Amino acid sequence: MTRSFLFVLGSARSGGNTELLTRKAAEQLPPDVEQRWIDLAELSLPDFEDVRHDASREQRARPRPVGTNEAVLLDATLEATDIVIASPLYWYSLSATVKRYLDYWDAWLETPEISFKETLKGRTLWGVTALAHREEEVADPLVGTLRNTAAFFPMRFGGVLLGNGTRPGHVLEDTEALARAKTFFAQEPPLARYPYDN
């Protein structure tokens, strides 16, 4: 299967540090690798509504979305061999738009015709984030969310590329992050595991 990368941008600012770092990493991909970029600020989703246990809901499978932003995101997700979550560190975790996108993964698990869990099994989830702190440990909640999401399917987890940036363009001064970006997507990630798995 030819590799196809989906880059999901979840910043509240276009061209921010997280996006800049993500694009630096993407520049290193071979030319035959397909890249698709989706900015969640431009392809917004309504707040997620969990109706799985709603007594008023008829017992029927959730239909596949058609002709909506949700449908575009679903199709892009299903078509990708590699999904890159590019989210700044907002209050020590993912941005609201990225969290909403991942909440919709729960809905897609309730759509039998797409076999969402089986389709994503074995594919690869990556993360990129820029943070203002020098202490990278503050990003642990974000990293844990993505790692555990990958472990659920299970997907391969390539880890999270971290960069430092407090003002627009600042991450381009983080020479260590830029060096890591050069080889970030070149690794062969293992299947993700929950931290409590033996």
SSE arrangement:
Blueprint: E1 4-9, H1 17-26, E2 34-39, H2 69-79, E3 82-86, H3 96-108, H4 116-120, E4 124-131, H5 140-152, E5 156-164, H6 175-183
Parallel strand pairs: 1-2, 1-3, 3-4, 4-5
The CATH superfamily turns out to be: Flavodoxin domain
Number of strands: 5
Give the helix level as a range of percent: 25-40%
Q: What's the end-to-end separation, in Å?
A: 31 Å
Query: What is the overall number of helices?
Result: 6
Q: Could you say what the CATH architecture is?
A: 3-Layer(aba) Sandwich
| Form type | globular
Largest sheet: 5 strands, parallel
Number of domains: 1
Task: Quickly name the level 1 CATH class.
Answer: Alpha Beta
* Residue runs with pLDDT of under 50 for 5 or more positions: none
CATH topology: Rossmann fold
Order of H and E elements: EHEHEHHEHEH
**C-alpha Rg (nearest Å):** 17 Å
Strand arrangement in the largest pleated sheet:
2-1-3-4-5
Given the helix and strand composition, which structural class is it? alpha/beta
| Mean pLDDT reading | 93
Fraction in beta strands: 15-25%
Describe the structure.
This protein is of the alpha/beta class and 198 residues long. It has one domain (4-48, 64-186): Flavodoxin domain (Rossmann fold, 3-Layer(aba) Sandwich), CATH 3.40.50. The protein has 6 helices and 5 strands; from the N terminus they run βαβαβααβαβα. It has helices at residues 17-26, 69-79, 96-108, 116-120, 140-152, 175-183, and strands spanning 4-9, 34-39, 82-86, 124-131, 156-164. Strands 2-1-3-4-5 form a 5-stranded parallel β-sheet, sandwiched between helices. Helix 1 links the parallel strand 1 (4-9) and strand 2 (34-39). Helix 1 runs parallel beside helix 6 (175-183). It is globular. The mean pLDDT is 93.
